[in-house]
Amino acid sequence: MRVIAGSARRIxxxxxxxxxxxxxxxxIKETLFNILQSELYGCKFLDIFGGSGxxxxxxxxxxADAAWFIENNKEAVSxxxxxxxxxHFSDKATILNSDYQSALRSLEGRGEVFDIxxxxxxxxxxxxxxxxxxxxxxxxxDKDSLIIFEAALDTEIGYIESxxxxxxxxxxxKTNKHVFLRKT
Length: 184
Known about the structure:
The chain is α/β, with parallel strands linked by helices.
């Protein structure tokens, strides 16, 4: 796994050992960031369920001003730290080694507002719905904030619009999809 484009292009990234994380493939990451490119420059990026940190690091490489990573697994947090050092982005990043609920409350308490929020939670556990429920009532979003979540292809998303979001796009791949949404 590597950084695809930008200032850290071609730098190899470490991934956590074991099956607790499933890194986004280079091809899917490239497609995702081609879609996001016009919104990245100067943005504040939040990577929830950060894993190796590859998504937030790609955002930094392509021009995001700062990235926050939420990750509960200590080995994955170590991996994110190492990858930030490899790419020289440590000074632009904040890692919250915490469960997502505590981390989101902490960020809201600090008055953070994000331009792009990305999450890649464990599939089929309903985490994306719980995060979306929290975000819709939080001050972490403004009217222009973009939220993207990765999910298995068969993940039901019919509830999203009733929560107060508008689905802008769904990009499907062989086994998973990215859902792009904004607050209505």
